[in-house]
Structures are given as C-alpha cells and as structure tokens.
Write a structure and sequence with these properties.
- The chain has 26 helices and 30 strands.
- It is an alpha/beta fold.
- The protein folds into three domains: 5-196 and 215-318, Aconitase, domain 3; 322-491, Aconitase, domain 3 (2-Layer Sandwich), CATH 3.30.499.10; 553-754, Aconitase, domain 4 (Alpha-Beta Barrel).
- It has a seven-stranded mixed beta barrel with strand order 22-25-26-27-30-29-28.
- A hairpin with a 5-residue loop joins strand 29 and strand 30 (723-729).
- Helix 3 (68-78) packs across helix 5, helix 11 packs antiparallel against helix 12 and helix 16 runs parallel beside helix 19 (467-476).
- It binds FE3-S4 cluster (F3S).
- FE3-S4 cluster is lined by residues 95, 140-142, 160, 162, 358-359, 422, 425-426, 446-447.
- FE3-S4 cluster binds at residues 95, 140-142, 160, 162, 358-359, 422, 425-426, 446-447.
- It is an enzyme of class 4 (lyase).
- Its cofactor is [4Fe-4S] cluster.
Length: 755
Amino acid sequence: MVFDLDMIKKFYAGYAGKLAAARKVVNHPLTLTEKILYTHLWKGNADEAYGRGKDYVDFAPDRVAMQDATAQMALLQFMQSGRTKVSVPSTVHCDHLIQAETGAVADLSRAKSQNKEVYDFLSSVSNKYGIGFWKPGAGIIHQVVLENYAFPGGMMIGTDSHTVNAGGLGTIAIGVGGADACDVMAGLPWELKFPKLIGVKLTGKLSGWTASKDIILKVAGILTVKGGTGAILEYFGEGATSLSCTGKGTICNMGAEIGATTSIFGYDKKMAEYLRGTARAEVADAADNLANELTGDPEVYANPEKYFDQVIEINLSELEPHINGPFTPDLAWPISKFADAVRENGWPEVLEVGLIGSCTNSSYEDITRAASIAEQATSKGLTARSEFTITPGSEQVRFTVDRDGYLKTFEKMGGVVLANACGPCIGQWARHSKDPNKKNSIVTSYNRNFAKRNDGNANTHAFVASPELTTALAIAGSLTFNPLTDYLTNDKGEKIKLEEPKGIEMPLKGFAVDDAGYQSPAADGSKIEVLVSPTSDRLQILDPFPAWEGTDINNLKLLIKAKGKCTTDHISMAGPWLKYRGHLDNISNNLLIGAVNFFNEKTNSVKNQLTGEYGPLPETQRAYKADGIGSVIVGDENYGEGSSREHAAMEPRHLGVRAVLVKSFARIHETNLKKQGMLAITFENKDDYNKVLEDDSIDITGLTSFSVNKPLVIHLNHKDGTSESFLVNHTYNEQQIEWFKAGGALNIIRKEFEN
Ligand code: F3S
C-alpha cells in the first residue's frame, strides 16, 4: 500500500467535529469547497468565517506531490530546514524530463542515462527524508496521484499547475511553487486567499461522441483563460454524478487553463467504484460512512445562485464535441462549426500529428473509447493519415491496456506508444520535421496549447480535443473532418462512416501492473547519503543565506530599473534554463535577462557602474558581488506576476541583490522574496519611480527599527552630487520581519529545529 490509510482515517474521524465548528461560524448551508477548506484550517476548529476573495487563511494540507523539474529546488531547500523527515506524506514523480523521440522503450532508456544525476539525487533525497519516489517510467504525477493518493474531502498541494486533476476524486488540490511545498513538508502552515466559488451545474447526460473533455472545453470557452482566477469551481447536478471518476479528473485538470485555484466534484458512486478498482476499498468504506458530508449540502445545490459567487449551467445532453484553439485553450469550437473556422482563418487543414494521452486524458475509459475508433478504422481498411502517438498516464494504465490488447489496436493503425511521461505535452518532443518553423496543425488530447508549447515551433497550430475525436481526426489526416457527419474513403474506394466511440470505465479484469515503479522511503533515513556530485552543473547543495547585518544598508548600486511588464519569466526564464532548476548558481545566469532596461529600452543590457560599460545583467551583478557591493532592482507595476517560481526570488538573493523596489508586486512573488530574506518594498508615491537614475547609489534607512506598517526611507545619491529621499512601504508582518533579520525563512525553521 503506497497511500497513508492511517492519515485518511484520522482525518475522517475528526471531520464531523470540524464541520460542526464550521457550520456554527459560517451559519448557512455549505458547499463542498467550504467543507474541505474549513476542515483543513491550520488552527484546527474554525472560530470565524472568512471573506471569499479577501481573507488570507493558513491551511494544513494532507499531502504534497512534486514533479521532477520542480522537486529539485523544493527538496534542496527542504534539506536546509534541519528536519530529518517530512511532516506530511509527500511524493516525487519523475515525468517531466523524458523526451519523446522514437517510442517508450528507447526514450525511457535515453532519459535515464541523460538525467541520471537528477534521478539519483531525487531518489536518495526521497529515501532519506521519508518521501515516496516514483521512478522514471512510473507515470505522470497527476495520474499517479489520482490512482493512489487523492481521496474525497482531502486537501493537497503539488508543485505543478495541473495538481488540480485530483479534484476528480473529491480532493482540493492546488498547484504551488517549490517554496510552499518546502514549507508544508517542513511542518509550516500554507497560506491561501480564501477563494471565490463558481458553481457549475451539469444537467442531462453525455452521449455519442461527446466526452468529459468537451465539458471543460465548453467551460473554458465560457469563462476564458482568466475567468477562474481566485476561484474554485464546484461541479454538481445529475450530469456530474453520471461522469466517471477519471472523466471528472479530466475536467478538473483543465481548470488550470481558466486560471482557477482548483476544481472539485462531490463524492459519489463513481468515485467509490474508482477507489475500489484501484485497491483502495478501505478508503471507499470510510468515505461511504460520511458520504452526505463529502459533497455540498442539498440546499446549496438547490439554490446555487444564493451560495456561489457565479453559476454556470451546462446541459450535457445538448453538448457537442469541441475542439479548442489554436494558441489558446479558450477559443472553443463546437465540431459543427470547426471546419468552417479552419477554412475562414486559413489554419493549415492537413493534420500532421494527433497525440492522445497525457495527465489529462489517459484513463482506461479514454484509451478504450479512442481504441474503439482505431479498431473500426483498421477493420475497415483505414490507417492513420497523420502521425499518431499515445502517452499512457501511468504504468498501471499502460500495463492494463496493453494486457487488454488496446495498444496493439493503436499500433495497427500506425500509432506509436510513448513513455508514461509528459513528453510532447511539455515540449519534450524531438519532432520529426524537416522544417522546424513550418506552419502546420496538430491536435492533442492534452491541456495547454499556447504557441511553442509542444514542439517549440511558433507556427504549430495546436488544438485540444478529446482522445476519441483526436483519433478520428488523425485517421482522416484532416482538421476539417467531422466524424459525426463525414465519410472517409478506404484503399478499396469504399466510403466509411465511423461509428460512435464506445468505452469501458473500469477494466473488466481489474487493473494490473508488474512493477508500478514505486520506491518506498527508508524507515530510518539517518544513514542515507544524498547524492549530489560537487562537480555537477545541474545540482548544487544550497548554502544558507547570510543574516541581516543589523544596520541600515548603504551604498547599493542600481542594478536595473525595469520598464513595464516584468513577470517571473522575465526574471527567471524557462526554456533551456529548465535544465538548471537544481543548480542555483548556474540558473542565476538567467537573472532578469528578459527585463527591459528603462534607460536604453534593451533587454539584458545594463550599465556596470564600476566600469561605465553596458553588459549582460547577470555578469554586471556578479561584478558587484565580487566587489562585495549590494544592489537594488527597481520595477514597475505588478512586478513578479506569472508563476510561483521561487528561482525568481532566490537568484537575486544568491547574487547579492539586497532590495526590490517597485510600484506594486504580484503577491506570490512578494512573499517569495520575503521568504528568501530579501527586502520587498514599494514606492509610497509611485511617481518617485521617475527619480531613480542610472548611476544612482542607494541607501535604505529605517531598518534598525523595521516594524509592521512603518515605512522605510530610500536615499538616492545621484552622480552629480545631489540626492533625494522618499518613503517606501512594505507589507511585512512580525514573522516576516524575523525572516528578513535571519536572512530567510529557512534559517528560522532550522534554528527552531536545532533548539
Ligand atoms: Fe505533464 Fe503535461 Fe500533465 S507537462 S503533468 S502531462 S500537463
């Protein structure tokens, strides 16, 4: 058993009591989302009601999951915490670093040798600190979590935006950065702004070509990519309970594409079936006892307008299959309108590749529905006119569908089975193309389709659809094919009409697997050595950041005055830099290389005040660091928006930047800076941004009496001998001021643990 049954039983045992406390303070019927959030308060029982979209609340998640790209820095930081074991059940999943090229066996073996040092590190650090480790080839994090760890009423965080997939099994599951994961593993609370609630009422029943995927494609069209921001989507209604558990997972998975904090379904028979089918009958039994409380109150679903901030209703009986794209997942086309849209917009009609599977759509049901189309094609003398790939979400799914003959069905049609990993979904795709810039179309059953996502080619028009529709389009080789109305012609010249897909939700012979690819942690990890080579260019053990010197900070150089948008991607770019996620010094060579310098309107070109020369930003900062000189980054509005990538805060700290002074911060980045012991401050008067000059030397005073709500003072010493001073604000609370003084939150945690 890989999951923690005792933890789940303990949670269920305390559930009724916590819920009673929540009912008292909230004082109205509860949505499922409220039930789960109020039963996971860090402080225990609720003693106040929280304002949706307003109050920041500390939570105690039940578990943490990490994928291999983000786990590296999360665990390197965790090693700094002084803990000997993680405080909550945690897992690592090796799925992002496997490149798809020729097929599962060769691709996996190549990845194992190319990424050996990363896998060895993750395996040894997991083993030492009590973390479950899923080896390369075991599967994609979210599918593995759904199969093994998610449970109705649970709450988890994961270092990947599609962590939300676990909502399909009734878990509030939220994507976070590595620093948050590190905090929770170290036994600290996790803070979240209490979300707004969007209710999605599903009526009717799916039939024919329409699949669960089409529900979320439709929702994305309604809400757009920003419509879910700061909200949790709660699905309910007869349509919701008719969907398979994995179908629910698909819908929750793509909630990430509309910016939702997460999405969730209430506990029902389909979830119980899935739990029993995946060797978790004890969890199903325990959940059955609380079934009424693991879903929203009936009054809430009867009068949703009263209890949700927004309500959407979709009739599944009328829902058409959808294809969304290109370049954005909210451009939603019902299949009946899609062919015209392709022609009118001049999108390439030839479909070059159809790709099914991924964490979004690789359940047994998905595979069997797609295979029912492939089977018809081959038995009627058709093969795929497009390239066609299948990515199983886990070894358990792969083994089972292979045993039941479905992979052979795809191969007969011309399909290639890829490793149980992210592959083309995250751009890990050595695509067979003579012209890497060619304008072309692909359809995937994945979730994201922005430019360059799959193959790095900005001219690839990527569309998202269900696996069965993707399969049909790959057989036709054309984007304009509508399997509901159109015919295909086989080699003998016969006209063929594909019948509706047929799927099986749960394998009749049950799931099976030879080796799921799981490594349990050592019972006693004290003697286990974490494997990091001192000469590695991909991994580096972190040194604690130095504590504050106890005085005001003077004679800082201006590193850059960034102009306009400066997201975490401008501060710490992704792409080729992903490779260095576990090596702080190497990845710091991308510091702010995407930011525009106010003074020359160029990127990665700033004045080195020591030489007067312009040069790349990381080199300039390294020159200051070598001379023991600190620096300041000045920025515009909403500095650090985008992701929770902690590298964007760690890199400037590592290279000796002392403060980030901006018109306003994106909140997560601001918190990340505070956690790393940086000064994150804002202009009291935003026009003071204009006073900052390129050759300024900067003093920050007021630090010896640094306290809550008390502004600090900035002194700009201009090159011409004049100087100006102004007030700057901050949002540090008492605890965060201690982080600053200690040189970072981890320094405090470690000290607490040593004492
Ligand atoms: Fe991997 Fe794509 Fe899912 S990158 S985790 S398969 S969204």
